[in-house]
Write a structure and sequence with these properties.
The chain is mostly beta strands. Helix content is 7%, strand content 41%. The chain has four domains: 399 residues, Jelly Rolls (Sandwich), CATH 2.60.120.200; 152 residues, Immunoglobulin-like, CATH 2.60.40.740; 118 residues, Immunoglobulin-like; 131 residues, Immunoglobulin-like, CATH 2.60.40. The strands form 13 sheets. Strands 2, 6, 7, 9, 12, 14, 15, 16, 17 and 23 form a ten-stranded antiparallel sheet that branches. A seven-stranded antiparallel sheet has the order 4-5-24-8-20-21-22, with no helix packed on it. Strands 25, 26, 28, 30, 31, 32 and 35 form a seven-stranded antiparallel sheet that branches. The N terminus is likely disordered. It comes from Companilactobacillus halodurans. This is Cell surface protein.
């Protein structure tokens, strides 16, 4: 008896040891398959990821869980394991599966996030299993952390294991709870499924990942039916809390894309295998299989492809964007764009053709499925391969990841001659041969934890465009958006074989050491002369940093052949214009006459021709738009209204200045620029009013007993008013005369007499009108008022009584004011 117990214990220990050894299975072998190596050699650059990702052997759920290895590893372009590797190999031979996760919970679901990645699935040639099973992008809050891993085969490394056991006399169906528990918990997956695991497929039979053929007694099998489409009725799924776009299974001949909740029990719906004779015969002794609920499934060509020109497509780019739930909501959005780029960085806008088709979609996500209190989760990719010995390795390379940063690039072309900018969304994309162009590339740091650094720009110059160096031999300049607008020159030596290659000397970002959060590269170029209208296609530009890669494309445009007619601009009035400085309701009207040569017409009153007038005044240029019609188009442009800022306008047209204003007309649609018309603008004072008056006024001395009533002035007195477009009135007042601080109002009084025949008017504290002019003079006019005064007119001093001896003083206050509105 003791011997039996000992044997039993040894068996238990052996079993335990074996179980533990299975849990340490983590692949690290170099890739050697010739097909995979060829694909790796031509893989997109990808950023280094070794320090941001890790994985572990999975923690298996129980002894019947056969998915106890993890084949995911980081490799370089030679297929070798490398600390500087830039590619994740998730499943690299038949029946393998793997997961690779962010080291920490770096994905914050409360913030916008972007993942830009390349994926390789396989060829799909021959049997369909060559490209199976697929890849999944996953967010997870599983307690197993980097050891989280689901089942292989149809499980894609993220779903649960539908473990159905063949026994001696019957089959034991999998349980929904078991499938749920063997999946990656608290997770959301966006699957790129290359194999349609379908109960109705006559070739489909239960599969054992360890290679045991069906049926083998006391062995667990996957029934391989997660993608089975069980009709279109979804009311039961809606009742279970799924959205209305949830479906049983998914279609797609060579793949589909869908959102799933791997750790949710209701995601695995039972299917009656006895309802169909084919299924019943295929899956004996099992009577129940499980179908996976797919949310918004979309058929997609996930395998090797060819573009419209017949070029092979091995790597498929996807941009995944996470849009957080609004405040108070638990519904976030996951946007994805599949096949949005070619490996050279050019955009793919083909959304209809089967060749290299782009798929864009947005799916609502229930964030409660992640079961996170702080919004932080892990993110990563899982994958699985099918049983074919020719199955392709599942590979992923990254342009950007949330741990680092997200930066993008955009491109435009400015036609400096025609004064317009062309983007990919522009409706007018025409330039003329010989036009001066600027090829613009904007780099934008959007968000992240690191600055975007070591940015190597590789820009392909559009066809039929000649890059034009400046006097210093530079073909482009970079302007950084920092406080100093730092610039950096790019030499013509960096333009080789139609591509401009330059590594930016500065970093951009929002952390210390960055030179602003954006930079613009502006390349000077000239549109080539062409004999007929020539369409110029897009050209890619790639900006490869050590921690982020962004691509964009120059917009397509058309170079127009020279027109046989020209555009002529005349000024219909005088080229010399007068402007009154700061006059009320002032205007600076530039009157023009625009015509084509050769009796060419602008069009009828309905269509016309769009014209841009380019006006230069001071050191600034302004534009005004108009629609020209008929054979001759007259246009009056009020430059003051165009500037629409009094301060800016009068800073150019200062008082008593002469300025040159030039204007030319541009027909952007036909690529024509008129001659330049020049105006000379004299800015004259608007109105002015000034006065000249002597500082002192002395009267005749008198002796005691002198009874002269009116005392004459003892000196000449200057009094004049100068006005320009300003009627006026002149007044005077006084506080009287004083002797030693004592008033003499009862002894002496100042009076005014306009002429010798006029009455005398006493001058006191109330202003007395001396003179006025109601005329608004268009030229400066001076009236010398005191010039006509005599000994008996003008200002005089009247004796009222005997005065004490002394020197009397007083103050006169003169006021000239605008008296009549003009």
């Amino acid at each position: 008896m003791r011997k039996k117990i000992l044997v039993s214990l040894l068996l238990i220990i052996s079993s335990l040891l074996l179980f533990i050894s299975f849990n340490t299975n983590l692949a690290s072998a170099d890739l050697t398959d010739s097909t995979d190596l060829a694909v790796l050699k031509d893989a997109p650059k990808g950023i280094g990821i070794n320090k941001y990702f890790s994985n572990s052997a999975p923690k298996v759920y129980d002894k019947k869980d056969i998915y106890d290895t993890n084949s995911a590893q980081i490799v370089d372009n030679t297929g070798a394991n490398s600390d500087s590797g830039n590619i994740i190999s998730l499943a690299n031979s038949n029946n393998t599966y793997g997961s690779m996760w962010s080291n920490d919970k770096t994905f914050d679901i409360n913030k916008e996030q972007t993942i830009s990645a390349w994926m390789y699935f396989g060829s799909g040639d021959g049997e369909s299993d060559i490209n199976s099973e697929g890849i999944a992008f996953v967010l997870q809050n599983d307690d197993n952390g980097v050891a989280a891993l689901g089942a292989g085969l149809e499980g894609l490394g993220v779903y649960g294991y539908d473990a159905s056991e063949v026994t001696l006399v019957s089959g034991t169906n999998a349980k929904q709870s078991y499938i749920k528990n063997t999946a990656v918990q608290n997770s959301v997956a966006l699957e790129f499924d290359t194999e349609k695991n379908n109960f109705y497929d006559t070739s489909n039979k239960p599969i054992n990942n360890n290679g045991k053929s069906f049926p083998s007694l006391y062995t667990y099998y996957s029934l391989n039916g997660y993608d089975t489409q069980l009709g279109t009725a979804t009311s039961n799924l809606v009742n279970l809390g799924f959205p209305s776009d949830a479906r049983y299974g998914a279609g797609g001949s060579y793949g589909h894309i869908a959102l799933t909740y791997p750790g949710l029990a209701d995601s695995y719906q039972p299917a009656d295998l006895t309802a169909n004779s084919t299924m019943k015969n295929q899956f004996v002794p099992f009577d129940t299989g499980y179908d996976l609920v797919h949310i918004k499934p979309t058929a997609a060509y996930l395998i090797n492809d060819t573009d419209s020109s017949g070029n092979p497509i091995y790597w498929h780019h996807v941009t995944i964007k996470w849009i957080p739930a609004e405040s108070g909501s638990t519904t976030a959005k996951l946007e994805y764009s599949y096949n949005d780029k070619s490996t050279d960085g050019s955009d793919n806008n083909n959304t209809t053709s089967t060749n290299f088709q782009r798929i864009n979609d947005t799916i609502d996500v229930d964030t409660t499925k992640l079961n996170t209190t702080d919004g932080k989760v892990r993110w990563g990719f899982t994958a699985a391969n099918g049983s074919s010995t020719s199955v392709a390795t599942k590979l992923v390379a990254f342009d950007s990841i949330p741990e680092l940063l997200y930066g993008d690039a955009d491109a435009s072309i400015t036609d400096n001659t025609l004064n317009k900018t062309i983007t990919s969304d522009s409706t007018d994309k025409k330039v003329a041969g010989g036009d001066s162009l600027s090829l613009n590339y904007d780099l934008n740091y959007i968000r992240g934890n690191e600055n975007w650094k070591d940015i190597a720009a590789q820009i392909k110059i559009p066809d039929n465009v000649t890059v034009t160096p400046d006097a210093n031999g530079n073909v482009a300049y970079i302007t950084y958006n920092d406080a100093n607008k730092t610039t950096e020159a790019i030499s013509s030596s960096e333009l080789v074989d139609g591509s401009l290659k330059h590594t930016l000397a500065k970093t951009i970002g929002n952390s210390s050491g960055a030179t602003g959060t954006s930079a613009t590269i502006k390349i000077s170029a000239t549109a080539n002369q062409v004999n007929s209208d020539t369409n110029v296609g897009t050209k890619p530009a790639t900006f490869t940093g050590s921690n982020n890669i962004a691509t964009t494309n120059s917009p397509a445009f058309t170079i127009m052949a020279p027109k046989k007619y020209s555009l002529k601009l005349d000024n219909t009035g005088s080229s010399n214009l007068n402007l009154l400085y700061k006059a009320d309701n002032s205007a600076l009207n530039l009157v023009t006459d625009l015509t084509y040569s050769d009796n060419h017409s602008f069009g009828d009153d309905t269509t016309g021709t769009n014209i841009i007038y380019q006006i230069t005044a001071g050191d600034k240029t302004y534009t005004a738009g108009a629609t020209a019609t008929d054979d001759d188009y007259n246009q009056s442009i009020d430059l003051k209204s165009l500037i629409d800022n009094d301060t800016d306008f009068w800073n150019i047209f200062t008082e008593n200045s002469t300025q040159t204003v030039t204007i030319k007309a541009i027909d952007q649609a036909n690529g024509l620029v008129s001659n330049t018309v020049t105006y000379i603008v004299d800015t004259k004072p608007n109105k002015s009013l000034s006065m000249t008056v002597s500082k002192n006024l002395n009267f005749k001395d008198i002796n005691l007993g002198d009874t002269t009533e009116y005392l004459k002035r003892n000196s000449d007195f200057d009094l004049s008013v100068t006005s320009l477009r300003e009627p006026w009135q002149l007044n005077v007042s006084t506080n009287g005369l004083y002797l030693n601080g004592k008033t003499l109002d009862s002894n002496l009084a100042l009076v005014y007499r306009k002429t010798a025949d006029s009455n005398y008017a006493a001058i006191g504290s109330t202003p007395t009108m001396i003179d006025e002019d109601t005329t608004s003079h268009e030229t400066s006019s001076t009236e010398d008022i005191a010039d006509d005064w005599t000994n008996n007119s003008g200002l005089l001093l009247k004796q009222l009584g005997a005065s004490n001896a002394g020197k009397y003083t007083g103050t006169l206050t003169w006021t000239v004011s605008d008296s009549v509105s003009n």
